[in-house]
Amino acid sequence: MVASSGIASLLLPGGRTAHSKFKIPVPVFEDSTxxxxxxxxxxxxxxxxxxxxxxxxxxxHKFCFKALDHSLRDIIKHNSRDNKSFGGKVMVFGGxxxxxxxxxxxxxxxxxxxxxxxxxYLWDYYQILRLTKNMLLQNNMQATDQEEIMTFAQWIIDxxxxxxxxxxxxxxxxxxxxxxxxxxxxxxxxxxxxxTFLDLCHHHNDREYFQFRAILASTxxxxxxxNDYILALIPxxxxxxxxxxxxxxxxxxxxxxxx
Length: 259
Fold this sequence. Notes:
The chain is mainly alpha-helical. It is about 40% helix and about 5% strand.
């Protein structure tokens, strides 16, 4: 199991990034191949592998899949002369084209689209399976708020599909429902923390309390500010640490002798 990003790979049991596991070169070009050689442990592992799962595939450049395809065709041992894609291995690619696509420095919109996996010659070999149920929401919602959450989930999908707002070449103005907004506040961080983590001081030792709540931010700077603010609210034990300068000289000698 691999993923296109390090964060996504951490969510997979034993997961690694695709570049790390398959030795995909950085940067990758149209004629690139993976640094996998016959007779190595990785080559033998891939020969024994029956299934390869690649998460967040739309984030990777199509040349990454081409490099892996050529390399697997070369190192996979066959009893026949069939030149199958990916060496005949079953490949499962997961991802959402509504999310981040390959990053092309100074690239135009058409450059980005041309770099995606569905612009690859391999796309014709794929069988497309569409997931239609939001399992995360279904596992965590109560019957009383089911309709509200499903409506919100569909609204998010509609934004990703570009059918919310007016068409204007990739940009649109989205009207956010009033109940999703915090309209009255003096300190924005205080307001969003208070609305998300109700009674934080009484639940700071409850793991489930934090598992079902999160604050997302667009910059690391804001994330740090939110983290610092929340940590300051959590009560903790105060401990005093003395440096060697504050220890009696005889005690210092005894400690040194003991060590």
